[in-house]
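Tutorial sheet, problem 5. The three components below are modelled jointly, 206 residues in total.
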Amino acid sequence: MNDLSTYAKLPESFYKRPKVVAVARDLLGKYLITNVEGAITVGKIVETEAYCGRNDKACHASRGMTKRTTTMYETGGVAYIYLCYGVHHLFNVVTNEEGLADAVLIRALEPVHNIEEMQRRRKNVPYTRLTAGPGTLSQALGINTSLNGYSLTSEKIWIAEKNRQQSFVIDSDRRVGVDYAGEDALLPWRFFISGNTFVSVPKRIQ
DNA sequence: TCTAAGATGGGT
DNA sequence: CCCATCTTAGAA
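Model answer (structure tokens):
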């Protein structure tokens, strides 16, 4: 890492705030960093989705605590990682106080540091597809379910900000792949940096 | 126990 | 459009 000192790790208080939608917006432009398999990789967060444990049928925790969702009920500032379709490891940021199961799904990153390692892990797919989706970004950063429950103030996986953050425009839209949630599928709880090329494209409009 | 479905992604 | 791949959740 050439200049890790320019990154400031976000404190626990950032995650424990009560409004998961606000945290989802504020995570845009921040940096997700992993130190696993002997490599540090960094990506800028460019797309997120908010999930609320109460009154949101799209949220895994909407019908109470289960074996899978126990992590979501932990205190804000830990990772909730689960296996999707038996293939993809999806990474979420748990927010709010313990017992309130809110989380933010990280849907896309812009590669920032150690792109060579990301390309190795991603089997040399084109640069533009390195981290443009929730499953692919986990592969690029070496994230899997062994990190489920890890603190995001740990030394293995964390989120940081830079002293000077460039300004950007935030767009919002309905969340991807949650049609089963009825009217909650219409909530505009997907947030992304306007115009960023790494924002994932929902299949239905490709 | 059994089984359908899933917060995806890559190929045809 | 199809399918990989496997855990989970809810039913039986």
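Marking note: The CA atoms of residues 156 and 190 of chain A lie 27 Å apart. Full credit if you identified this.
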